[in-house]
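Q: What structure does this chain adopt?
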Amino acid sequence: EQRKLDKQYLAIVVGRPEPAQGVVQARLKEIHAGIKKVIISRSGEEAISAYRVICSSKTAAMVEVRIKTGRLHQIRAHMMYLGTPVLGEDIYIPDEFAKMPPAPRLCLHAWKLGFKHPSENKWCEFIQPPPRDLLTAAARLGLTISDQLFVIHKE
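A:
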């Protein structure tokens, strides 16, 4: 099967997903309870997220997430499904995570986009390194991110 679109995100999550690398296949159903949100439901639409922990500390982890589908709040819901909410989360947060470390915003960043160019038939890849506020939040949690992560490797 040929890739058409590759979307990758970086997320700072509370805790560390176990296992450190995996695929979440949990169907998501949109609900409207004052705000748009999703729930995990057998009657929902297919949603697939592949993830891997890039680095972790005692309290948090930086996770790279590659989405195979593009559902509303997919990464947020899937990380919560793993028991590791995205730092700064305010919708999918159970009571036991009410005292999450402070965050400047939702710590989720679309950092890599790849697609096959329609006329040149070549794979194109674009990287947007995480903004300073995300890196500062990561550093405060003891997360060290290698600069090598943001280098484009030719295929």
